[in-house]
Specification:
eight-stranded mixed beta sheet, single chain, 10 helices, 306 residues, alpha/beta, globular, 43% helix
Amino acid sequence: MTGWNTHDIPDQSGRTAVVTGANGGLGYVTARELARSGARVVLACRSETRGRQAVARLTGEVPGAEVELGRLDLGDLASVREFARPYARLDLLVNNAGVMAMPYGTTADGFETQFGVNHLGHFALTGLLMPALLAAPRARVVTVSSMAHLLGTIDPGDLNSERAYRRWIAYGRSKTANLLFTHELARRLEASGAEVIAAAAHPGYAATGLQTAGPRAGGRRTVERLMSATNRVFAQPAEAGALPVLYAATAPDVRPDSFTGPSLAMWRGAPAPSWRAPWTLDDRAGRRLWTESERLTGVSYGSLDG
């Protein structure tokens, strides 16, 4: 894994990948490098305008790339169902899209925005696409978490932060949910004998636009400017932050329930195994979150629900 970079990505010809939030940041770089390696890539984006701009940019940077735009709003389960409907086979799903430290709000289905988009939307999407993933040999599901999962574990009695809302704690809990989901999905896939690998990754501290989106949405201009300045000084570029995601998505030695991040103090550097909080490996918590996620979204995983 030492020094792993985009030139180490195995040939992806003949494989189809879906990358959520692919109009910018980590998602765009991930989609671009997968396409450069031969994959057919679907850029799953909430904004059709930004999505079309991303497709045009990508095909300009990678002539001959096989890419297309898919309209997907992870904050609306009807949109998730519509997006997933046409797929009969899928080799790779990268659950990348997310929101960070947003003012309190709710999704179209009434869930707290960060939990609803970052976890429930991707839980539903993965479940709806699971038959297509099971139909492909050696398919993968890679879910992007964050170092911010260290801010706290989920509260099973208050998943939607209805008793109290603190934007950073809610974000951290949604990223813990990403890891618990990966843990439980990997366990269920192994128990079923399926070849699909569920893994997780994080970018360290990468400048992706997430850091300024929350303050901007809340009208906190001073915080927005401060985060922008901090990004310029301390953050690594999205190209570097995407490397752990690309590694988890393509490297041949990736293990189920692995967590890949930057090698230098989980902050920056080449992809490496990343430390994770013990509560993200809690079987009981994983099962409980799974059950509640199925109830809230109405999405069942079929043969994996045993």
